[in-house]
Amino acid sequence: MAKMGLNIAGRIKNFNMAPQQSFLAVLEAVVNSIHSIIYRRDKEESFTGGWIRINVKREDTLIDDAKGDILAFEITDNGVGFTEDNMESFLTADSNFKEAIGGKGIGRFSWLKVFSEVKVESIYKDYSLNEEVNKRSFVFSLQNNSDYGLEIDDRLEAYTSKFEDNQTTVELVTPLQAYNQGLKLSPEIMTSKIIEHCIEYLLEYPDIKIDLIYDETISINERFKEAIINQKGDIFDVSNESFTIRHLFISKNLLKDNYIYWSGNKRIVTKVKLDKYIANTKGAIFKDSTAHYVAVISGNFLDESVGDNRAVFNLPNSEDNNDSLFPDSITLKDIAENAKNVIKEFLLSEIKLIQEKSETRVKNFIKSKAPEYNHLLKYCIDDIRQLSANISEDRLESILHDLSEKHSKRIINELKEIERNTNLSTEEYQESFKK
Predict the structure, then answer these.
(1) Is the pTM of this model over 0.85?
(2) How far apart are CA 429 and CA 419, in angstroms?
(3) How far lies 267's CA from each of 24, 103, 277, 311, in Å?
């Protein structure tokens, strides 16, 4: 009887995961499968393939076309399998076995945060035992927890049936009530979440075949390949740290807005909408109205700063870091400000087209419906070019009103400044007033 030490129940209770993040537990299993395939490639020169199947199991209903509750997620791959090394790592809380590829050693705790139990079955060729074929199976559940640790009935035996290939299945069974709602996603949303979370792996390992089986089989690779319209890489520095940006144009059918993705260890940790940093990109559609833009920002500094639950970076994000214990440390804001300049340069021609479209739209609106704002086309044209071409007329009129008020106050303040300047000659005063 194998045993996992430490107070695992307490460890899982303290594992920070919001109910809306529950699909992360499934994504952890998918990434483990990717790692297992990469590891097998390193061990077995002749192995160049690799596949992953994510099977969504739902309860049957008596009503036609009704969607039953999700019962389990079954993730199967043909990676290296649950070898002795992998099993030892699994039994070690906070294991550093996969540290070189960004493994935290705690991802499996997210499984029991969201699901009541996990069933594992692994058939694999053991390279440390003259390539003997073994079968390992066990159940991972808090029901087997005690004051002495978490007991796991690790059943290892020789595989006597006909061996065709390695095959490991991790079945995440019975979602817990608090996290059940966060798993009730459509196949399209699940597909988008898998692509989003694993986008760097999909770019680097396009030959690892990933399928989502949900009523029908969806090829994640094909969806991703069809969606990528263009990509390019850039590098920038913040202090002495180097960062990479992958510029991606992704079909608007897959992605519904423009984003900056923050990556740690090849997984997307968090994202923000592009318009937070670059004006007039809200709802913008690039590449002749076919695609949205994504910037994937990565680097060793971000890899080392990922929080345990992979939902945040352990970095200050203050507008003013002077009160920090380490005022010279790099913040997310520092990285974002530098990245913003690189993104603006890359999107220069696309943004120019958006600005021209916005300017034309505002000119037509002023000419036909709001001529009282005609002066803004001369004095506030830069502000007008920053507006989204997709905002409603009511919102546009409100913005023009605010710009007019702002412009009037600016003129009044400039006049007052001229009046206060006693060093001006009469001619200079007249010229400044006229201007």
Answers:
(1) no
(2) 8
(3) 11, 11, 22, 10
